[in-house]
Design goal:
This protein has 377 residues and is an alpha/beta fold. It is built from 13 helices and 14 strands. The protein is globular. GO terms for molecular function: cysteine desulfurase activity; iron-sulfur cluster binding; metal ion binding.
């Protein structure tokens, strides 16, 4: 059975060229970038070249890029690093953030901080006006994701950034799901901190970066050596960074092409369901191109995902499966309420490299067949 992978928002397969770059770097660029000899300088050049590419990809300056172990560390560094540096105890975030943000904020709440969790509308969108109304004299940080990983809603980051740019409040956005899919300009967005991870755009796991605007106060959360201009201790993962750079190079070169392909995939999927007489609704508005979150009335998502898996299709509910039960998605709860039927019948299909229109058609047909079968039970 040839499996059809439709869970690229969870993680993406490494691009063959990226894997080749990774393999070559593992063998050839093994020096410590902090060493002054030739072997170390070769590793340093790899870091410098990658940092330059990452900075250019978001219209930043090279020194504003801090290498991290991925998106979770970047989010934690943004939140805890800001809290440690600034006076004031108030933070603003949204109810639909990734848990790397939500759990970090919850930890700060336990330490005496006051966190405002902004609601979203039924399209999964934060209102800039709500951010404005939540601001206080002691607000130190606003952290709102750029693109939601479950429903793909793209938040009004530029509008929020415009509200905050004349203030002393630090503005962070988690761009892990959006980087490599949407064009990003930190100047246009007016953000101070921005988090990225490589494994969402066909790079290796365990590597990412945090953009830190020059002059933005930030305390390190790791202590050790003086790597990353004393901001993030630990010897840099040079092979992963080299592979990450290759993934970014490919993503930037193919962004428009992929967006067009994903738009076709979405339309094909919905057209097949419509032709098969399947009732459905699409969750999320102003969506990223690679995420399709559908509500299929009359089905139970747990059994639906099991049946899809047996049929060779990898998809996701966006929820945590544990011990035979599914915890409701916090994103869908925020959008529709705690008793909404969407909590039990919504499924996320997400697209990436290696897919064909024929595979999308097959996956949609199988989705229709399973939906009909389960509706009879």
């Amino acid at each position: 059975m040839n499996r059809i992978y439709l869970d690229h928002a969870a993680t993406s397969p490494m691009h063959p060229e990226v894997a080749e770059t990774f393999s070559e770097a593992l063998l050839s660029v093994f020096g410590n970038p902090s060493s002054i000899h030739g072997t170390g300088r070769a590793a340093r050049k790899t870091l410098d070249d990658a940092r330059r590419m990452f900075a250019a990809s978001i219209h930043a300056d090279d020194p504003e890029i801090i290498f991290t172990s991925g998106g979770t560390e970047a989010d934690n560094m943004a939140i805890f690093g800001t809290a440690a540096k600034k006076e004031g105890k108030h933070i603003i975030t949204s109810q639909i953030e990734h848990h790397a943000v939500l759990h970090a904020c919850e930890k700060l709440e336990r330490e005496g901080y006051d966190v405002t969790y902004l609601p979203v509308d039924e399209k999964g969108l934060v209102r800039a006006e709500d951010v404005k109304n939540a601001l206080r004299d002691d607000t130190i940080l606003v952290t709102i994701m750029l693109g939601n990983n479950e429903v793909g809603s793209v938040q009004p980051i530029a509008e929020i950034g415009e509200l905050l740019k004349e203030t002393e409040i630090t503005f962070h956005t988690d761009a892990v799901q959006a980087y490599g899919v949407l064009p990003i300009d930190v100047e246009a967005l007016n953000v101070d901190l921005l988090s990225v991870s490589a494994h969402k755009l066909n790079g290796p796991k365990g590597i990412g970066f945090l953009y830190q605007r020059k002059g933005t106060p930030l305390s390190p959360i790791f202590y050790g050596g003086e790597q990353e201009r004393k901001r993030r201790a630990g010897t840099e993962n040079v092979p992963a960074i080299a592979a990450f750079a290759k993934a970014v190079e490919i993503s930037l070169a193919t962004m428009d092409e992929r967006a067009a392909a994903y738009a076709r995939y979405k339309q094909i999927f919905k057209d097949v369901l419509t032709d098969e007489g399947i009732e459905f609704s699409e969750n999320g508005g102003s969506q990223m191109p690679h995420i399709l979150n559908l509500s299929l009335p009359g089905i139970d998502i747990e059994s639906f995902l099991v049946n899809l898996d047996i049929a060779g299709i990898s998809a996701s509910s966006g929820s945590a499966c544990t011990a035979g039960s599914i915890d409701p998605s916090h994103v869908l709860v925020a959008m529709f309420g705690e008793k909404a039927e969407q909590l039990r019948n919504s499924i996320r299909f997400s697209f990436g490299i290696g897919l064909t229109e024929q595979q999308i058609t097959e996956a949609a047909e199988m989705t229709a067949q399973i939906s009909k079968r389960l509706a009879l039970l």
